[in-house]
From TrEMBL:
Pfam entry (one): GtrA_DPMS_TM
Enzyme class: transferase
Localization, UniProt: Endoplasmic reticulum membrane; Membrane
UniProt family annotation: Belongs to the glycosyltransferase 2 family.
Chain ranges of the Glycosyltransferase 2-like domain: 28-192
Originating species: Streptomyces bangladeshensis
Region (Disordered): 415-434
Record-annotated membrane-spanning stretches: 289-310, 355-374, 386-408
Protein name: dolichyl-phosphate beta-glucosyltransferase
Length: 473
């Protein structure tokens, strides 16, 4: 079960203070690969826009991932020339890898990125990060598919983009409208917990991050943008689409098997308005009651459909027992996941067995009420039978909820959340070498850009839970 004290649980969102003038509130990352021509005008235009319109201190970080042209030299010159610009180089290619590496070491409370072509109008940048600064949202994305967006691009890219987002909605039940727009932001405390779960290092990085955040219940803010397609884009559409479809399959499989520790991304109690602390009400009871009622209504309808179907082939008693058995299993599974927040396959068989016992108690209560009515009256009226059944079912429902909460899915208090047994096999870290170079103003004394030695960065395997809080990610 989810508990507030679980490792990785996110703190409550708060409005970020203005801070000191020298402390950046926003770090805008520009991932580049062989962009020696487009990089200078992009950085200068972005810097001028932020200087004129952004009310907080900021930083622009150029994340060069394995460029083979003079992009590293250009980035170094820009970092030496403009105080608010820094450069970061990786010797391995991949936009997702570049973003994860830079975001993981940034000290800014709000992290953003945009493509170097600046296809998105910069007037959307402040609306993008404002919900994160105010504490309203966890992530923010620009959307080219919102009704208020104004987009200029060719029919081929329009078709590919809309088809891809339809695939996400159909296969991963994604509710965000645009996964691939290169214009996103995230709060740092969310990134620190979310990024180790993201496996992709390329173009699917954005989609995987958003799907995991949405499934964990984080709030994603969408901003309609004005967007003009870059005709000189070097993105290979076919290869990117193939990799994205492979990523959709991988993430969908992981979500279906419950192998992702999404409990690490939960917000503390009281941060969700549906879970406010009420006087004399145990913590989480309001949300659990709401979920239990919704599941109860749906499972009752499911039971009636099953009973009607089985009744055509067998007697009423057998049809009733079979329909109750199937609907009881579905009811327990739905309450396990939706009402009490238990994820993963571990303990599912035990929960189902306990659920059948609970439903057996309820069945005995309703059957006993009818038997008592029959003993008291030889021929009870039909309206009297219905009244007895309604009262007995209400009592059985209250008893079922109390047994679910206290016995089947008990609150573990300050213990660790429900553990998925698969985590025991992937809770180890591994080392991956990166050759990185960071530039700051005044560091180019030995040349236009300087090299550093190979550095080994400890990172977590994708989709894994930390086992040693002391390890660096």
């Amino acid at each position: 079960m989810r508990t507030d004290s679980s490792p990785g649980t996110l703190p409550a969102r708060e409005h970020l203070p203005a801070g000191d003038a020298g402390t950046p509130v926003l770090d805008v990352v520009i991932p580049v690969h062989n962009e020696e021509k487009d990089l200078p005008p992009c950085v200068r235009r972005l810097h001028a826009h932020l200087t004129r319109t952004f009310p907080y201190a900021f930083r622009i970080t150029i994340a060069d991932n394995a460029s083979t042209d003079t992009t590293p030299l250009v980035a170094a010159r820009l970092a030496a020339e403009i105080p608010e610009v820094a450069a970061f180089r990786l010797e391995q290619k991949g936009r997702g890898r570049a973003l994860r590496t830079v975001w993981s070491v940034s000290d800014a409370p709000v992290l953003a990125y945009m493509d170097v072509d600046l296809s998105t109008d910069l007037n959307a940048l402040l609306p993008l990060v404002a919900p994160l600064i105010s504490g309203h949202s966890d992530l923010a994305i620009g959307s080219r598919l919102a009704r208020a967006s104004r987009v200029v691009r060719g029919p081929k890219r329009e078709f590919v983009s809309r088809t891809y987002n339809l695939i996400l909605r159909g296969s991963l039940q994604a509710r965000f409208s645009d996964a691939q727009c290169g214009f996103k932001a995230i709060r740092r405390e969310v990134a620190q917990v979310l990024l180790p779960l993201v496996e992709d290092t390329g173009w699917f990085f954005d989609t995987e991050m958003l799907v995991l955040a949405e499934r964990a219940g984080l709030r994603i803010h969408e901003v309609p943008v004005d967007w003009i397609d870059d005709p000189d884009s070097t993105v290979h559409i076919v290869q990117t689409a193939t990799d994205d479809l492979k990523g959709v399959w991988r993430v969908g499989k992981a979500l279906a098997t419950g192998s992702l520790p999404l409990d690490r991304l939960t917000r503390p109690f009281g941060d969700d308005p549906r879970d406010r602390e009420l006087p004399d009400v145990p913590r989480g009871l309001a949300r659990q009651l709401l979920g239990f009622c919704v599941v109860g209504v749906l499972s009752t309808l499911f039971y009636l459909l099953l009973y009607s179907a089985f009744r055509q082939f067998t007697g009423s008693q057998f049809a009733n027992a079979l329909a109750l058995l199937v609907s009881a299993a579905a009811n327990t599974a739905a309450n396990r996941r939706l009402t009490f927040g238990v994820r993963g396959r571990g303990g599912a068989v035990r929960h189902q067995a306990q659920g059948l016992v609970v439903f057996g108690i309820g069945l005995a209560l309703t059957s006993g009420s009818l038997a008592a009515l029959g003993a008291a009256t030889d021929r009870p009226a039909h309206s009297t039978e219905l009244a007895v059944l309604i009262a007995a079912n209400l009592a059985a429902t209250v008893l079922r909820f109390l047994l679910f909460r206290a016995w089947v899915f008990p609150d573990r208090g300050d213990q660790r959340p429900y553990e998925d047994p698969h985590e025991q096999s992937y809770g180890r870290s591994y080392e991956q070498p990166y050759r990185t170079t960071r530039f700051r103003a005044g560091e180019a004394a030995d040349g236009p850009w300087r090299d550093t030695t190979d550095a080994t960065v400890r990172v977590r395997p994708a989709c894994l839970r930390d086992t040693d809080p002391g390890d660096a990610r």
